[in-house]
Structure prediction request, 440 residues.
Amino acid sequence: MSDVSFREKAQKGIYKVINPFVRFLIRLGLTPNAVTTIGLLLNVGVAVIFIIGAEKGNRGELGYVGWAGGLILFAGLFDMLDGQVARLGKMSSTFGALYDSVLDRYSELILFLGICYYLISHHYFLSSLFAFIAMIGSMMVSYTRARSEGLGIENKGGLMQRPERVILIALSAITTGVAGAFVEGDGKVFIPGIRFHVFELMSIFTIPIAIMAVLTNITAFKRLVDAKKALDKIDAEKAKKISSANMAAVLLLGAALLGLPTATHARIDDGRATFTEAVDTFPVPKFTAKTQFYVQRTPNTNTIMYELNLKNGELNEDNPIHVYWIRYADGGGTQELSYIQRKFAYGVKTSKIADEKFKLLFAAYDKIPFYLMKSSAGIYHTYVELDGKMVVLRRLYIRIDPGGTFWSPNVKYVEFKGTEVASGKEVIKRINPKWKPPKQ
Prediction:
């Protein structure tokens, strides 16, 4: 896709290379948690190599650093393998995600333990200090993301995420070991007038660590700032809900969407006669390849349209649904939703839950989930579960009767209309606004 980042493209390319090995691991019976555990043990091995190098190696003997770098790179591979084993082997679990996150932190702390031990033992005091600061930054990068997600916001940007940290340390360590094997001595470089050397072969390893010490903490601070902006925005939106316009918008759609399917007729039967429902006289908007469904409600024919938000022919995964008005009562022109309508009534909140699958929740009432995903024919549809059956949604109709107030409209029901996936039959279900969904 055109708006996929370079990092995501590179990750997908790596997955294509390692997927055959992933399938081999699955055939061997390895679980994602087992792969994660192997990654931890390999990082313990990295720390052991650094400690042995500190105890038995000389200051200019850099072979231990090179071998440790190679093992870091191999251990980093298992950070990618566990997730792929879970996805391809259909073994994903909530605990597995937690286990992976916890062991990743242990792996990184153990890695920095070995690095700091090695640097201190060989009297690289300043470099050991930078390594410790890099460790602090690495932990805070992970913590700010985890804490932000716990507060309901996504926060995973920045230059020094875990893959970048692993690759930087591994490649600099390997390069240091290779340089030590081909360059005689310690490679010290002096500048006239300066009493101490400004570079040596070990600097190939320690300079990137110093850079990491700076960038990890910048990344953690940036995530903190991003989280503040997102949380301030959420707090501001919550505060706006107490305004009269917001309250009216929430009551209009929120009260309408409370409920349980109770009837299956497209016409009203009062016990004496059957009469035509207002929606039967409303105009039916023209469906295109992008159209998903539409919402109509009394007392007028103005219609809210929900369609795919395409960019250069591809679905915009950050905002997959475009919502707008067709103003039939005002000549049939189109109009974007207002901020209040989008944020508190007819807009939808979207979250990606799998490749080409999104969960949709109405802004005003999020207890009834809708799912945007591709059909077996490769076409996007919006699905909703009614009476245990998956239905391709085509229309929502909100029936508002006289007798209510501006603050509390008399919503009689919401009607779902669509096509049952299994049978292909048209389905019409109504929701009673007095019903409340049970606690899950």
User: Anything to note?
Assistant: The CA atoms of residues 145 and 329 lie 47 Å apart. The chain has a mean pLDDT of 84.
